[in-house]
Amino acid sequence: MCRSLEQGGRRCPRCSPEGRRLSRAQARAAAAADGIRTFIGVTPYRPESAELMRLSSRPSYYDTDEWAEFDETIHAAAERHNLELVHEAPADGLWQGDTEPAGAYEVRAENFDDVKAWAAEIAGRYDQDSVMVGYYDESADGRVYSVAVGDAPTSAVLRTLRQAGLDGGRVTDGRLEIASPGAPLPAEAQRVLAARYGGVDVDRAHIEFVEKDDSHLAHTPIKAIQMLRQNYCDQHGIPPRQRIPHLTSADDIAAARVYEQGEHQPDHPKIQRSYRVFRQHVAQQWDMLTAAGYRFEPWHGETEQPYPNSAEMLSDLRDHKRLYYFRTEVSQDSEGALPPDHPMAKPVTVTMPDGSRRRMVANDVFRAVHDAIAHSEGHQFGPYGEKRAWWTHRSSLPSEARLALWNETRAQNAWTNAGPHMQTRSADGSVRVKRRGDVDYIPQVERPYAQQKCVLPPNAEAFI
User: Do the beta carbons of residue 216 and residue 124 sit within 8 Å?
Assistant: First the structure.
């Protein structure tokens, strides 16, 4: 607020409603030179989340694994669709008298179609009917109404919306925002908002509600397992999950090279300690999932692998609470054979669905648990999905177990997808990962398995 206004004088032009609108318009015009800048409202929240949150020990939804995964996906999907996230903030979505946690985002793109494709993917993955996207345009028919609500409780803002006869909006950064794609808000509704919170800013905007792309529904995260994993972390004092770091193909090549050159050292004290803790937690996670009604069964089918793709595995896990795992003994005649002295060849004791206890090869237990606890977030079996699955599982283990997990997931997958057989040179002589169209490119299903070994990488903290 202007000093002169505080002292009873006139409002300076820059602080008047018209001045603020002009300032925002100028900022948008400057950003337009670099492409179109759009605003988006989206949520991963579904009715089942409210029920699951009652079982959570976390004080806020934004502290949960469900939100952490959503945050990672927002950034990953934006990158795939060539979008630059320029602003993001949590938001309280308000709809028909209820609230839902959401995200308020601004992205810069070359064209609006890229933004709509991104929105359709996110809506599909989180089974939302649609996602609101828009951009400010003085010639558009839509309008965005903005009211400063400060730190007013969400319940109070909802009451005001009801009094104004409005279905919904969102609160973010201390402001209530209401998007109207067509006709302006009724004058009485604007009067109620102004009477309660002061002036109402109005900006013209092009607004669309983008419907979900159903093709992404197959990889909707299984939120019940997210909650189980989160509560497991709380019970074992494991810190809250952080966003996955940005890992490039150069990082993949480095991890593959370290794994390939590393010596198999099952007797190294650091390796033995890490695998001991790792086996302990993997067995406990099996028991946790079994107690929740999930069943793990060895695969004896005619095909080599239990599932042709990650979507089929997720469907079985979601719809039947069942997961078939690939048995270690089947791979003993392949390049991925498990050496007898490998720490994962040791047995662990786990609980069966009938309550009995059974000794099993730790590697079998891990294969089942990893698919259930990590890939259940919708991460596919491809290179990037395997990275995210590694990071998801990593977030549910103590630091002592991370070296073992890195060997069993990140390192092996990096070698398969970025090892020597998948490397070539760019025009400048630098090494890069082969792409479709390159000479000797190997399709994913034909790439060799990595040798199973346990290595201690130099500067391990940079990898694990």
Answer: yes
Q: Is the dihedral of CA 436, 308, 275, 244 positive or negative?
A: positive
Q: Is the pLDDT of residue 299 over 70?
A: yes
SS3 (DSSP) at 95: strand
Residue range 118-144, pLDDT digits in tens: 999 999 999 998 999 999 999 999 999
Distance CA 102, CA 76 (A): 17
Closest CA relative to residue 414, chosen from 295, 287, 247: 247
What is the DSSP track for 16-55? SHHHHHHHHHHHHHHHHTTSEEEEEEE----HHHHHHHTT
Helix/strand/coil percent split, the chain, to 5: 45, 20, 35
To the nearest 10 degrees (0 to 180), the angle between helices 65-80 and 223-235 is 120
Buried b (16+ CB within 10 A) or exposed e, 255-293: bbbbbbebebebeeeebeebbebbbebbbbbbbbbbeee
Most confident of 40-49, 91-100, 425-434: 425-434
Residue predicted with more confidence, 48 or 399: 399
CA distance 343 to 454: 8
Distance of alpha carbon 188 from the chain centroid = 41
CB 177 within 8 A of CB 169: yes
Question: How far apart (Å, rounded) are the C-alpha atoms in residues 324 and 308?
Answer: 12
What are the tokens at 345?
A: 């060849």
Radius of gyration for the alpha carbons in the chain, expressed in angstroms and rounded:
26
Q: What is the pLDDT of residue 90?
A: 92
| Residue-wise pLDDT tens digits, 436-454 | 999 999 999 899 999 999 9
> Using an 8 Å Cβ cutoff, are 253 and 433 in contact?
yes
- Residue 197's φ and ψ, nearest 5 degrees, are -120, -5
Mean pLDDT calculated for residue range 405-421: 97
Can you tell me which residue has the tokens 């109207």? Answer: 180
Question: What pLDDT, in 10s, does the model give residues 14-38?
Answer: 555 556 556 655 554 444 445 799 9
Distance, C-alpha 281 to centroid of its chain: 23
Integer CA distances (angstroms), 242 to 66, 106, 172, 393, 414, in order: 12, 22, 22, 12, 21
Neighbours of 135 (CB within 10 A): 22
Instruction: Please choose, from the candidates 355, 230, 377, the residue with its C-alpha nearest in 3D space to the C-alpha of residue 293.
Output: 355
Closest CA to 274 of 337, 349, 343: 343
